[in-house]
Amino acid sequence: MDMVAALDWVHSEVAAFGGDPGRITVGRESARSAGSLDMMWSPLAKGNAAGIISESGALGPRDPLTVTAATSYRTRVAAESFGLNFANQRNVSSITEMRELPVSVLMAEDNISDTILDKSICANVSGFGNPPEWRPVLDGYILPMSYEKALLSNSHWDIPVLTRNNKDEDAASKNPSLTLAEFKIQFKLMLDSLSEEFSNLYPADNDTMAGEVANTLWHDMTRVGMWQWAMYWQEGRARNSVFTYFWTHAPPNQTSGAYHGSELYYVFNNIPYTEPPKTWTANEHRIGDTTVSYWMNFIKTGNPNGHSLERWSANSDRKQIMVLGDSCAEGAISGGARVDFLERFFKAQKPW
Asked: Cβ neighbours of residue 109 under 8 Å, at least 6 residues apart?
């Protein structure tokens, strides 16, 4: 509700600062990007923004990573049960007494994780982890319904969306450490009846290949998941477009690749101001200029395309995604057989 109130204030006051209340774009990254999407889902915030940017990022409603990432939510029943237990453990019996608890008592619980994955197919798969206990609640008021239902019924703001995930984030890693034995055990547990087909599509014969192939799977899941989210958007007959991209560029002087948040140097044009300083080349500035241009076009018009930029198509059944980084071009989200495989895997999962 604090985000709803903040957005309402910006919409009311931005004109006094020279801004246009009709062109507000809500854009955030990581856990905050889920907050951007929450503003899109919530009827309380409707009409206060013209676009959404979600960096790490929208994932398909049946993608298991949705459960573990910042996009995860609790049901009202689960949240109320947790709240009652929390109150009882502190001998609190009323809302008034709850409001009098010191902030330090609440913050002490900030790192508690839920146990929602403990009995799921992903319980023992590296790359997955339980979400925090304190997270958004599907309460029927601020967040009225599940993501899948909202998308398929167009029960959300119908405004342009730009969303992105990075090559070396979530379960993927520039330096994978998964052994072949772990690879075989984990993905058999996760994929069950699809595990034999998985072995044919993602073959690995040694530890090095196991880590590389696992990364390929996570990259595919991320891209297919984003694409599916946007396809749900279209199936719900939303009029506005979704633009998806995959960030592949690794900033200099580090070994973690295109890690979580690595694009932020570029999208905010902060390359010269990093601390500690990095070895920025002309190519780094070129990548930054291109990325900033796409973002500014989207913020101004709801469409990232503009003069002299490579064409960036809105999401469609062509199964394409924009790749930004060392190169700048549209490409397939994955090989056709692997996309079909992941679509069937996602379809069998619980909807969110």
From this structure: 86, 133, 134
CB 42 within 8 A of CB 147: no
3-state secondary structure of 163: strand
Rg of the chain's alpha carbons, rounded to an integer? 21
- pLDDT of 112 reads 86
Report the C-alpha gap between 245 and 289 in whole angstroms. 16
- CA 49 to chain CA mean position, Å: 19
Residue 142 φ then ψ, to 5°? -75, -45
Cβ count near 139 (within 10 Å): 14
Label residue 36 by pLDDT band (50, 70, 90). Answer: very high
Q: If phi over 0 gives left and psi between -120 and 50 gives alpha, with beta otherwise, what is residue 316?
A: beta
Domains in the chain (CATH in brackets) are 2-72+114-347 (3.40.50.1820)
The span from the CA of 207 to the CA of 16, in Å, is: 60
Note whether 20 and 34 are within 8 A (CB): no
Note whether 162 and 298 are within 8 A (CB).
Answer: yes
239-269 pLDDT per residue, tens? 999 999 999 999 998 899 999 999 999 999 8
Tokens 């140097």 label which residue? 265
Query: What percentage of the chain exceeds 70 in pLDDT?
Result: 100
> Among positive and negative, which fits the CA dihedral 264, 64, 231, 221?
positive
